[in-house]
Amino acid sequence: MPRSPRLDVDVVVPVYNEQAALGDSVRRLHAFLTEHFPFSWRIVIADNASTDGTPSIARALAEELEHVAHHRLERKGRGLALKEAWSSSDARVVAYMDVDLSTDLRGLLPLVAPLLSGHSDVAIGSRLARGAHVVRGPKRELISRTYNHILRATLRARFTDAQCGFKAVTRETAALLLPRIRDDGWFFDTELLVLAGREGLRVHEVPVDWVDDPDSRVDIVRTAVDDLKGVARLAFATPVARFMAVGVLSTIAYALLFLALRAGGGLGAGLANAVALAVTAVANTAANRRLTFGVLGRAGLVRQHAAGALVYAITLALTAGALGVLHGIAPGASHAVELAVLVAASLVATVTRYVALKTWVFAVGLDDRRAGRRGHRGEQVLAQQTQDVGA
Questions:
Q1: Average pLDDT of the chain to the nearest whole number
Q2: Active-site amino acid positions
Q3: Domain 9-236 sits in which CATH superfamily?
Q4: What's the pTM?
């Protein structure tokens, strides 16, 4: 794509087999930007493997209209098209809108202005925010609201509308998030916003006027299934979910080791519990260090395992106490009953363990990672400002 000095905004229009709508939509968008948009801009038609006349129409538009470029991909995927177009852009802000232009173009300036001013990192159009005016059928309205309720319930999302085809991010934000987005289809939008929230980025919402396109060819059922799969993937990617997975595996290992020591090794219940807990606690701390909290390298390793040993002592005290109560009530309890009581006591200690790991054991490593990300973003912003001043 042609490069422009100090380009403010790239407006990407992802298309797949849109020969009927492409020409009129791009000309309408071009006319609006020419007459009403106060920043420098470029329209990028991101064609993801169209098989109809879309590629030739896109090339003709790029030759006919100033500040229009054509970006061709040989693989299908709306999210992939946005990744490629945004990643290759040199603009300060990269935006996109659907080719049907369902969203009122007057929302574009409120969308990108907070990003260009440095106030926000991500901006989204919302059909569900207060002040939005939407015209669409009850079926799509119900699906949209249900999906966004699911996001809030499962992923603790704070944005109101994940799927509106009207979004923008700064170039620094794109560089940070795009390499981490795995979805190449319609779930791209949701993954972008969830990752932005987890990074603590500022998301600005713009209520939009939106009119449903009756000729939409989106496969609602297939898209819904793919979106739910993506939600499950992102839910498991949270620290709590990873902690629970590590905990389940640790509990299974602990149970097997306890029974082996108790029955095969001939150890008493208290000693078998202490040994099994000690072995699995070391493995649990190491696994949570890497998988749950993402702390890598040897820095702080000894201190973290020493702190983990204190957490182990708390769990040992709780399980030993529960074991003592059991033997006081039922002195002849079977090994299976002993194990059940110990696992139950260990589950009680799980909340304490997670809080201790997050706020104490690995707190320094997490703070260092966050500071490193903030510093990296700050360096990117400073470099951009310096470049702008020089230009």
A1: 86
A2: 189
A3: Spore Coat Polysaccharide Biosynthesis Protein SpsA; Chain A (3.90.550.10)
A4: 0.69
